[in-house]
Amino acid sequence: SNPSQERRYGSTLATAFRLSELPNDASRLLQLLAFLNPDRIREDIFIRSGSQLAGQSSAASWEPRKFEKARYDLTQSSMIKRSILKREICIHRVIQSEVRAHMDEADRYAAFSEVVNLLCARWPPGDHCSQVTERWAICEDLLPHLERLYHLYLEHPEWVQYEVEQALPTLMNEVAVYLHERGFSHEGKSYLQLALELCERAKFSHEPLLSDMHLTMGALANETNDARTCLEHNVICLALRKAEAAKTGVPDLRLAFAHSQMGIAYMMVKKFALATDYFLQSVDLLGSINADVDDFGFPMCNLGPAYWIQGKLDNADKTLTDLLEQREKAFGKLDSVFYKTGRVLQALGNVRSSKAMRLSEQNDHEGAEKLWDQSFEIHTNCLKQYESTLGRFAHRTADACHKLAEHHIRRKEHTQAQ
């Protein structure tokens, strides 16, 4: 510290904490902590790589002994607090700000990039094909840190002078995928927009990263009723994945799923016959690569409503009934692992309702009542399945509640409907 400065102004935060006197490893750890959300920083961000994202190195991870010594030094100097039980660290925002202020621009960006790589190594990668809920607990813990990185990057426009590492757009895409899975698709758009801008600036053409990002933006646009954006990005995604498949001459899961998403895009612009063709192509591609039962979930579940909306109720019923039987055989009745089963039940319940309405119009009231009862039971199971996989407050759960309310209103059970 500067003695004359101390005489004139007294101790600053930096001199009071003696930042310059910290051992090298403690100083480096403190700099990294300054770029994370200050609360509940998991220690395993630093000392293990977890489910590594494609292309990410674990070189940024710390040796356990070095990390423990650096953590001890910071704890002893009151820079951080530690929960031994939870193995988490917290740091005051004022200390974070002071640490960043005492770094030059190049060092700030280097520390930021190191944190990006650490989180890339720890984040369990998402997958539009499966969207399993098992990874959500760790994603929920890490999300505040990814949000922090996003805002810090936007707050430092001068960082555009530095080379973009693939890890940053990869991580921003992962945030968008996770937010989409949890029902916050609108919030995911800004992260993905940054990811696409970074790739454009760096002239990245890496696959599957680029097509994955366009696929994600298409999915977000679908959930937020933005038909034009949905179609635009799914067209790009499918073109990229066709080009990749042409290099090997062998179709893969990504190509099959791109066809399914293309079908969704055409559903949004009301080109239902074209959408149906894309869903069928997706199913055929999955069959050609001997895909897992779960991989058929989205394209077949989308095919059912495509038939339904065109009035082909028997085709829709058979498609969805067959899919439900396949899933129950593989995962058990009303599995609590995949919300895809809930989607099948919701669609099938809708089909049975439409069949009931058709019979009622034909004055076959007994047949209609049987189908109404089936629809009610299916939608009841749909709600149970959504609650066990997505929780009580997801928008799909709300959709299932709305369907059940319609049933109760039809039965004149107004109290239950409320």
From TrEMBL:
Residues 18-107 form the DUF7779 domain. Pfam families: DUF7779 (PF25000). Gene3D superfamilies: Tetratricopeptide repeat domain. This is DUF7779 domain-containing protein. It comes from Bionectria ochroleuca.
